[in-house]
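hey team, just a heads up i'm posting the complex here instead of the shared drive bc the drive is being weird again. everything in one block, sequence lines first with there labels, then the predicted structure for the whole assembly after. its two chains so it's a bit long, scroll down
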Amino acid sequence: MALTASFSEAQPVGEPSQIVFTDTSTGTDGSVTQRRIYIAKADGSFIVESGVTTDYNAWPNFPSSTTITLDLLDKDYATRLVVEWCDVSGNVLYSVQQDAVGFTSYNEDYDYGLTQLMTANPDLVDDNGFRQHKSDLRDFIDSGDRAISRASDLYNAQRCYDLATNLRIKSQYYFNADN
Amino acid sequence: MALTIPQIVSIAEVSQYLALTSKTNGKIYDGGNFNLVRLLYMVRKNVDRKYNQDPTDDTLTATSNYLLALCGPYRFIAEQKVIAGGGGSISPITPPTSIVPYDFQVDGSSFIPTGGTSVTLPIEWQGLNIILVRGGVPQSMINDGVSACYSWDKNTRLLTLINAPATSTELIQIYPIL
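-- predicted structure starts here --
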């Protein structure tokens, strides 16, 4: 049976910088020996692991290697994903694209941390800065997800995620969690 | 039987819209200091996502209990909807066919009218405990001779307001504990 190429992706728990790709292809094609993973940002540039000089991340050893973990995210991103199945010479034999995928573990994990703080100190809810900014964080993440799920709009999704990231990296101003 | 985290998430989801419809009717129970609807949504999203990531995460006990506490009095109605017909701690011997909490503003013809001090609840409330909320504040059954409190006889279904009759425009809610 000929190869039907497909893949899935996920972020492992507690590792927001990583993406785990899983090759879910069915069938066979003896010509395929390797894969390439393209992770395109909203601005069209590509995300690759440190030290990689190409636009893609190599995924060798097809079909024996069915998963690969890439450690390459420094914040939340709205991306377009392309995986190519290639022969030994690098000729593309199969290609699968996912138009819009959001990776939001940085901000989602941080948001959960804020809930943990509220659990330990319920009075934080009464703090004007804390509650409003936590609400904003939730809105920014959800809005980015909506831009992706409803419109495959990477540009606006990334803008939303960056607003959430701004709250997270400047938490000392937005969340008086240390008080 | 303890509630599972998926049950707590579902209860919070139901409590969210119950709190919303209560708010839009002009009757607010949110502790007076935050939009409960919004808070339930935010915390529920966090707990649900964490549970889906890792059901064994050891922080989930605390955060899910916090979420359940946020549901306040809406929890009891929500539990009835989420776990309707199920077994466990909230399944009564004779499941009620219909128990609708009371939620009204006191006037001359309300369930407890202006100046009223007692009311007998319908037969389906027999055997149940209740929570009485006045002006958004859960009431105590401890009578110190001064503070507003209440008594409830679950056999006769007689609810008595003590030290403070119902006042005009006051918001009163009566919730069954199943």
